[in-house]
Amino acid sequence: MQDNLQLNTDGVTLLFENSWEVCNKVGGIYTVLSTKARVLHERFGDRLIFIGPDCRGAENPAPDFIERKTLLKSAASKLSLPDGLSIRVGRWNIPGSPIAVLVKYDGIFSSLNDIFSVMWENYKVDSLHANGDYEESCAFAVASAMVMKALAEYLGANPAGVIGHFNEWTTGMGLLWLKLNMPEAATVFTAHATCIGRSICGNGKPLYEYFRNYNGDQMAAELNMESKHSLEKAAAHQADCFTAVSTLTADECEQLLEIRPKVVTPNGFEPDFVPGDKKYASLRSKGRKHLFEVAKALKGKDFDDSVTVVATSGRNEYRNKGIDLFLDSLVKANEADSDRRVLALVLVPAWTDRPSYELRAILAGEGGDTPSVDFLTHRLHNEDYDPTACRIRTLEAEGRIGGNVDVIFVPCYLDGNDGILNISYYDFLPALDLTVFPSYYEPWGYTPLESIAFGVPTVTTDKSGFGQWIQADFTCGFISCGVDVVPRTDSNYDLAASAIGEDILKIAVAGGEERRAAAKAASATAGYADWQLFIPCYYKAFADAFASRDERCPQTVSASKTCKGAKSVAKTASKKSTSGRKSAAKKTTGK
């Protein structure tokens, strides 16, 4: 691939995408950006530039960042930036290999109070009550916007064709800064959740039965979230195009941010991440073999291929992500009159101290025949307080799990170097027979989409954007589409646990032919979430952003004329996508 920059085609001179998770794997937004990059790069080439934080520095670079100092006309050494700001330029080592610019933003901290004053005067962003990660997020966001402006000027890009796309509240102040200092650029702001919605759920309050009575500003004051909420709300209102990742989140934004997103941009998946049949079989065999060795060392039991392996994973939010419900569904499965054995995994990063020395010794053949009789692969700093560890310990002590259902907690990122499994998450997925993601709060839901993309049937809930997409376009069920969607309300917890327990046993008792049919259906459904089908929603967002920019800034040279075609493309592709999904559902079910 040539490291040259092509400008002034298709109306977009530069498309900047800004996120805390560019080359920085923290959560689901990393997956969103890294999987859609190839499709965006096919359309925009090196006019697409991802901007992320330089968290590690040149001495300890991000593993998926490949520095290329000559890219962007050697901008890394020549760009004019304020003191204390610097960038590194390179390629993001993902499908598409897009340009990535990592920003060192330390120099912004000394100016934050002045920036906060400007944001209050212009947008009524309340930074007075800031706490936690607010200041660091704002420093990075503003530094990123400064880099966008400086790069556009240095490269001679027509500012009327520049788009700044900002993801989540953590980049919101960058959008506001860019609008003030480079008004000719069009801006897009995407909500992957709302601060208040997540906080309401995280604090144990009922979100759904009381939903239409919540006021975002009032709840921000009650939950000490004024700064994040006011920033997120200002970015949503000030963006030329405000988008959300699902209709579920769009409804949430309308209620809590008092503005409805113009475009819903659902999250797709990149098929190149899925291994071919031969490699898949090898990964499955390797993963299960090592997993069963670990399980035997922990539990003192033999495990073989007759055991059904079920897992949950994702962000460590005990209630929001449904970890509590997953564990209680295992109790239901354990209580059932079945002789089928289940090995359940909780693959959720926690406050990890170290790999279990006792477990490592047993695996190395140095621990004798006595198992460690535990459920943790890694020790935690807070084992007596971690909600997942405490719940598993209680359930085991009460004998409510541990019969035909054993549970293992792997409290770390599966990056291939955790010290116990030493297998990356995507390489481990083929070892699973079923995944369960019973979220209470889930704007989209990448983990179930990843699962079916790898041919692993999944259970999710109707409180996830992904679950609602399945309900809208497919017939739910393992054989029909590889996905079962369980209803969740504020008052049906026990019913949901029973339903998920039944789903686990359905897979456990299924024969080989039935399992293969479920896996085939899962993969087929994932095909309708290909970024090729979802990306036109973003093109519509870009076109809408240009149109809004032209209205507020009519003196600029409009880039929207060329992008009018994007609206047509989006409309046509959307019709084909919806038609194709419904046809597939009918074909699968015979209805």
What report would you give on this structure?
By secondary structure, the chain is of the alpha/beta class. Helices cover 45% and strands 14% of the residues. It is built from 22 helices and 17 strands. The protein has helices at 28-44, 71-78, 112-123, 134-154, 172-181, 195-202, 216-222, 226-238, 247-256, 277-299, 323-335, 357-363, 387-397, 425-428, 446-453, 465-473, 478-481, 493-509, 512-526, 531-534, 536-552, 560-589; strands at 14-18, 48-53, 65-67, 86-92, 99-104, 162-167, 186-191, 241-244, 263-264, 308-313, 342-347, 352-355, 378-380, 405-409, 434-436, 458-461, 483-486. The strands form 3 sheets. Strands 3-4-5-2-1-6-7-8-9 form a 9-stranded mixed sheet, sandwiched between helices. Helix 15 (446-453) links the parallel strand 15 and strand 16. Helix 4 (134-154) packs parallel to helix 5 (172-181), helix 11 (323-335) crosses helix 18 and helix 15 packs across helix 19. The longest helix has 30 residues, at 560-589. It is globular and about 75 Å long. It starts with 13 loop residues before the first strand and ends with a helix. The model is unreliable at 1-9 and 558-591 (pLDDT under 50).
